[in-house]
């Protein structure tokens, strides 16, 4: 009975979240959009097998790409011809093989698929091409190319992708769960709902997944690192900013601050991970050294397998990094030294050997593009792509020469990288370069920080409480079916425990001597280290997480700004599960119920549930830092989650302040920094059982 109640509650929460669209951004989907939405959902169901949907089968058999070249933009025609030739020659990654974004050959082929999809002049051609691709090309490459195309094409702007953990659940749940799902299907459980418990949990524990006891300190963090929402955020972040994507080539407006967004998302990710470690009494993360003689890596076992049966490789204890067949460690050191030299000199060289200054204004953006190795890098050939190099170096550590057919590791996929503790060590190594640059910038002066006539008098919050609830999603896409009829009868789900928090509000009392529009920023920073030593302001700054940023119109006199955590521009709510989304679309098409679309919707965004770190039962102290500054820009109201995902391609820069302002530079003097328009307040995060949280 309790299981049924939890399941019903989870479904109600999902439905409520799906319908909770702000009135100002809500619109009713027309039949054209509903048809597109249904098309994309059908394309991404059970991608490992040929389609069983009659309409798609008909298109897949009849559509001939080479006879439809007049329906593609001129720039895309060479790619159309190239794809046709490769298809005829069988010269693409076969279906059933594992696709990885860090393998050069794999990503080149995936980009070829994207180019053809993106180059379609109209939606009908785009859709038919996608149906044809789904049947004939590698499913991993297809999902990647289609997902990126849907996010970036104008005619699919309002289409919602299904959650990646329902497209390929094997990359989000462990092998035991998948085994039970297969077992349930083999037992012929059709026409009934089968829900698999991922864990039997005690909400007072610090670990909640499928591990009966902690065997290593990092096990304490698996509720965070293996959260499906966190991995979804990381996946969509890279779908929105593919490192190979050129705005100029594809005719989009450049993504404002692309390099700075790369830096800031990594910095925020590392800081958020630090707050979670702190909640569990663990020290900071040591940067990777990639020293083959002295660095010994911690072990990691993902307990997952690919659809084709290959296991995600485990990493034994004390394994050392070594040269791989693609490049050697010295090549990575060489690239890193070039970046360090550019930072120290304050100058980088473009492909024409022209000097490009890494100044206070644009330097962080230029440097971010260099380090990420994206298409906006001024000299990718010279400065490389150290972020991907390190993921390859550590990702294939168990089979560096590719001699034994070991499958790609979790580090070699965006969907799984955040599960591995070594990923955060790689991030810390990358951040050392950015910290080196930031340390050379002058600290903000009091005049640069003060907002004359504006004073924050008080900050208070509701009680901050986290708890563990349960989330149910479908495993059906992993399970092959013989027909559309069987697909409709199969209903196998998984119930996973996850971290959540009670909604809370922050109230800021402000006195202003004028009517003025301001930018308001909230940061959550640690107060003590894991040993209980109080951190300096500079140390807190380094690990601060921006939990909201918004505009506010101050009136002359006393103002009370009240902001709900649900309105945060750093996060997005849970995605609507595919089953519910399909039903809503069908209801809309049949005229039974309107299907509402949120025009501010965005796939990318940090999970709303993880806005707060876990804290502890006795309460973990943090510092809530509030900054109010004059607003300088056009608008900060672009779409949701611009704090955690940037503005994105096709949008304008939303603010002239550096990302992370005013905590983005070294603080040398406490007195000079704390101006009247800044305020710091101690807050305590409590972790409770769910029933206790409801009473708190």
Automatic annotation (TrEMBL):
Coiled-coil regions listed: none
Matching InterPro entries, A to Z? Di-copper_centre_dom_sf, Hemocyanin/hexamerin, Hemocyanin/hexamerin_mid_dom, Hemocyanin_C, Hemocyanin_C_sf, Hemocyanin_N, Hemocyanin_N_sf, Ig_E-set
Matches recorded under PROSITE patterns? HEMOCYANIN_2
Per the database record, which ranges form the Hemocyanin middle domain?
163-434
User: From the UniProt record, which GO molecular function terms apply?
Assistant: nutrient reservoir activity
Q: Which keywords does this Swiss-Prot/TrEMBL entry list?
A: Signal, Storage protein
Domain of life of the source: Eukaryota
- Residue intervals of the Hemocyanin C-terminal domain: 443-687
Q: Which GO terms describe its cellular component?
A: extracellular space
**Hemocyanin N-terminal domain location:** 34-157
> From which residue to which does the signal peptide run?
1-18
| This protein's name | Hexamerin-like protein 1
Q: Which organism is it from?
A: Gryllotalpa sp. XZ-2017
């Amino acid at each position: 009975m309790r299981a049924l109640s939890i399941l019903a509650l989870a479904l109600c929460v999902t439905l409520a979240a799906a319908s909770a669209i702000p009135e100002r951004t809500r619109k009713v989907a027309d039949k054209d959009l509903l048809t597109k939405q249904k098309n994309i959902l059908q394309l991404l169901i059970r991608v490992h097998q040929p389609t069983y949907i009659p309409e798609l089968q008909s298109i897949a058999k009849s559509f001939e790409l080479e006879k439809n070249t007049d329906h593609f933009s001129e720039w895309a025609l060479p790619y159309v011809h190239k794809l046709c030739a490769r298809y005829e020659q069988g010269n693409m990654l076969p279906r059933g093989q594992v696709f990885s974004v860090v393998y050069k050959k794999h990503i080149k082929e995936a980009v070829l698929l994207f180019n053809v999809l993106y180059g379609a002049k109209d939606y009908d051609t785009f859709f038919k091409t996608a149906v044809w691709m789904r049947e004939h090309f590698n499913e991993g490459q297809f999902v990647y190319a289609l997902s990126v195309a849907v996010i970036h094409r104008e005619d699919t702007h309002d289409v919602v992708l299904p959650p990646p953990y329902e497209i390929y659940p094997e990359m989000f749940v462990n092998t035991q769960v998948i085994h039970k799902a297969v077992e349930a299907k083999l037992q012929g459980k059709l026409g009934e709902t089968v829900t698999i418990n991922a864990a039997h949990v005690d909400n007072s524990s610090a670990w909640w997944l499928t591990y009966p006891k902690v065997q290593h300190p990092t096990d304490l963090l698996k509720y965070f690192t293996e959260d499906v929402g966190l991995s979804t955020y990381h996946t969509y972040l890279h779908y929105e900013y593919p490192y190979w994507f050129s705005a100029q080539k594809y005719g989009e407006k450049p993504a404002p601050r692309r390099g700075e967004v790369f830096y800031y998302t990594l910095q925020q990710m590392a800081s958020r991970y630090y707050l979670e470690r702190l909640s569990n009494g663990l020290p900071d993360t040591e940067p990777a050294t990639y020293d083959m003689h002295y660095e010994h890596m911690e072990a990691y076992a993902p307990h997952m397998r690919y659809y084709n049966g290959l296991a995600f490789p485990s990493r034994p204890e004390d394994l050392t990094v070594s040269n791989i067949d693609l490049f050697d460690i010295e090549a990575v050191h060489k690239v890193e030294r070039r970046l360090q030299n550019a930072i120290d000199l304050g100058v980088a060289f473009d492909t024409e050997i022209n000097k490009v200054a890494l100044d206070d204004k644009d330097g962080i953006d230029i440097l971010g593009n260099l380090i990420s190795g994206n298409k906006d890098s001024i000299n990718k050939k010279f400065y490389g792509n150290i972020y991907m190099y390190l993921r390859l170096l550590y990702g294939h550590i168990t089979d560096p020469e590719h001699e034994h057919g070991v499958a790609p590791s979790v580090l070699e996929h965006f969907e799984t990288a955040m599960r591995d503790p070594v990923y955060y060590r790689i991030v810390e190594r990358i951040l050392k370069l950015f910290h080196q640059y930031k340390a050379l910038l002058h600290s903000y002066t009091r005049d640069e920080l003060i907002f004359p006539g504006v004073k924050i008098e008080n900050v208070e919050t509701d009680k901050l409480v986290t708890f563990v609830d349960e989330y149910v999603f479908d495993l059906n896409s992993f399970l092959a079916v013989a027909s559309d009829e069987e697909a409709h009868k199969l209903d196998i789900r998984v119930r996973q425990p996850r971290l959540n928090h009670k909604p809370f509000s922050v109230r800021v009392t402000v006195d202003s001597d004028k009517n003025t529009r301001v930018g308001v920023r909230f940061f959550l920073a640690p107060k003590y280290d894991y040993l209980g030593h109080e951190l300096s302001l500079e140390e807190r700054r380094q690990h601060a997480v921006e939990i909201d940023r918004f505009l506010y119109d101050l009136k002359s006199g006393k103002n009370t700004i009240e902001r709900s955590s649900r309105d945060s521009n750093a996060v997005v709510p849970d995605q609507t599960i595919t089953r519910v989304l399909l039903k809503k679309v069908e209801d809309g098409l049949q005229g039974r119920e309107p299907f509402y679309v949120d025009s501010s919707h965005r796939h990318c965004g940090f999970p709303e549930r993880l806005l707060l770190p876990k804290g502890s039962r006795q309460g973990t102290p943090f510092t809530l830092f509030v900054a109010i500054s004059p607003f300088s820009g056009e608008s900060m109201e672009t779409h949701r989650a611009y704090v955690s995902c940037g503005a994105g391609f096709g949008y304008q820069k939303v603010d002239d302040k550096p990302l992370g302002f005013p905590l983005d530079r070294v603080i040398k003097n406490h007195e000079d920094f704390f101006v009247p328009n800044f305020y710091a307040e101690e807050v305590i995060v409590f972790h409770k059982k769910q029933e206790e949280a409801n009473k708190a």
